[in-house]
Amino acid sequence: MERDTFSRGFLAGISGGIAMLAWSLLSGAVLQISHLRNVDWMAIMIFAHPPAFELIETIIAMIVNVFFCGVLGILFAYLLPLIKREKIYLKGWVFSLVVWLGAYAISTIFKVVGTTPTSVETAILNISGATVYGLALAYTTNKLLYGEIKSSYGTNVAPAMKPLGDREDKEK
């Protein structure tokens, strides 16, 4: 079976994006570690105003954020043959931190309202979110591109009957 790097990379990126989003929402909203979650960064980029956001804006930002993570997954999947598969978790983590640092650099250079200045708590939350993304991306990419595809419930696919050739030999 041919491996579709594009689709599998996109799915791996989406799974990492969902994991990062879950972590960001949990730590930002429930634990109140930070006032600026990953989804808030995306909302600022889309709607060009600082928080507070309406519910529909937050939902749109979540969808766009997960989509963007899927695109990053495609990039990671195509980079992987060049940087080799060994230590894939380290490579996924470094990849995600480079993207995070790039986002911070762009928002700082262009003085994006609502993202600067950044508190230590926000930076820690976003570094940890990037870490969750990078590790989930590496895990899912490894499984989708290089892992064996197993049937559900751990069953093995086997023929339900003996081959016809054996029965014909016995009748003769």
From TrEMBL:
An example Pfam family from this entry, by short name, is DUF6789
Q: Where, by residue number, does the polypeptide cross the bilayer? A: 12-35, 55-80, 92-110, 122-140
Checking InterPro entries in the record gives:
DUF6789
Supply the alphabetized keyword list.
Answer: Membrane, Transmembrane, Transmembrane helix
Protein's name in the database: Uncharacterized protein
